[in-house]
Specification:
Cytochrome Bc1 Complex, Chain D, domain 2, 187 residues, mainly alpha, 9 helices
Length: 187
Amino acid sequence: MFKMRFSTISVAVAILAFVAMPARAADEIEASLEVCSSCHGQNGQPINATIPTIWGQQASYLMKQLHDYKSKDRNSAVMAAFVETIKQPDLRKVANYFAAKPWPARPAANASAAPPNGMATCRICHQENFQGGAPAPRLAGQSYEYLLAAMNSFANDERENSADMMTLMKALTASQREAMAKYLSAL
C-alpha cells in the first residue's frame, strides 16, 4: 500500500513539474524582456511617439524585425545591442510573447472621412482595417511620428529591409506620406 501511494505521489509530482515548466519558461522570457519596457512601455504604450507599439503586433513581422536587427539588415544601435543578447532560437519566443499581448487601448483621434489616395495599395498587405497580417505589421493606431519616420526612412533609403516598401514610399510625395501617417494613426 505504501509503495502504491508513494508511486502515485511521485507520478503526481512529476506531472505537476512538467505542467509548470512552460509557466516557468514564460516567466523567464518575461523577466528577460523587462528591459524592452524601458522604451516600448510597461503597458504597451511606448515612452516616446517615435517608438513603435509592439504589444499585439503581428508575430511574423516582429520575428522579421528581430532577425533583421540581429543580422544587421536593419540598423538601430539601441535595438542591435538588445537583440544581440537574444539567442537565435529564442527570437520566435520573443516575437510570440509580444504578439500575444493585447494591443494597448488609447484614445484615438478622429480619422478623416475618406482615406488618402494610395491607401488601397497598403490594404493588400496590411489588411482591410490596417491591423496587419502575415507578413505585414499593424499600422492602425501606431503613432503619427513613428509611421511618418518609418515611411520616410524607406523613401530616403535609410531603411532597406523591405524592397517593396522602399519602392512604394519612393513613389509617394512627402505630403502623401504625411496624410497616410495621419490617417493610420487616427484609426
